[in-house]
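Section 4.2 – Deliverable D4.2 (structural model, holo form)

The reporting period included a commitment to supply a predicted holo structure for the target in complex with iron/sulfur cluster. Inputs used:
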Amino acid sequence: MADDAFSCRMCGHCCQGQGGILLTDKDLLRLAAHLGLEPAEVLARYAETRDGKVGVKCGPDGCCVFYKDGCGVHPGRPDVCRAWPFFRGNLVDESSWRLIQDYCPGVNPDVPFADFVRQGRRYLQENELEREDQGSAPNALLKVDGGDET
Ligand code: SF4
Ligand code: SF4
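Output (structure tokens):
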């Protein structure tokens, strides 16, 4: 079966909201390489710390500072951007999956939840987007051992 549970419509909804785009060390190095800047300069220009976590700043419009009619750093975007909508909560809770259909038009409501989960898990594995342990990566990401299923 084709991977039809999700196809991004480029609406930009997931690029809105304060503080949601966390930057891990891996993300920072990739973003810095993409921008041709030193990591410290990326942090100084584009990042802020909230509740002890480093994330991408938002602009006055409430969108991620990199959003300009689409992602302005797409090849260098952080893991949480790569993983959406296959976040842990949406993979373990069918009601969350239903709720995000109002927010993310890329999620296909006609594809059963079980297929969304199966396709999402495979996508995360193939793109190395599972987190190695609880403390070092955004909680939104599924654990690498699949131990988030409750
Ligand atoms: S909300 Fe969904 S469809 Fe819109 S840009 Fe984000 S991933 Fe794509
Ligand atoms: S880095 Fe790109 S994909 Fe991620 S929130 Fe910002 S504009 Fe959107």
